[in-house]
Specification:
With 68 residues, the chain is α+β, with helices and mostly antiparallel strands. It has four helices and three strands; from the N terminus they run E-H-H-E-E-H-H. A hairpin with a 2-residue loop joins strand 2 and strand 3. Helix 1 (10-17) crosses helix 2. The longest helix has 12 residues, at 46-57. The termini are far apart.
Length: 68
């Protein structure tokens, strides 16, 4: 059965990005990773996270120069 939850935890996002938990929390607090604080807990909406990740991995044309 597929996971039907609408959000990731910070720990799950840290694993997905191969980052430490502390680094991931810092990116969440800085607003770099799209997240919401619900109660005392940070959650990352799955759709917004994947859209953000797609934007991060798209390389602008200007940056392609010099890449082999």
């Amino acid at each position: 059965m597929a996971d039907s939850r609408a959000v990731y935890s910070v720990r799950e996002v840290a694993r997905l990005l191969s980052l430490s938990l502390g680094s991931t929390y810092a990116l969440v607090r800085e607003g770099e990773i799209p997240a919401r604080k619900l109660g005392g807990r940070w959650v990352i909406p799955k759709k917004r996270f994947h859209a953000w990740l797609d934007e991060c991995t798209e390389q602008p044309a200007d940056d392609r120069e010099g890449w082999a």
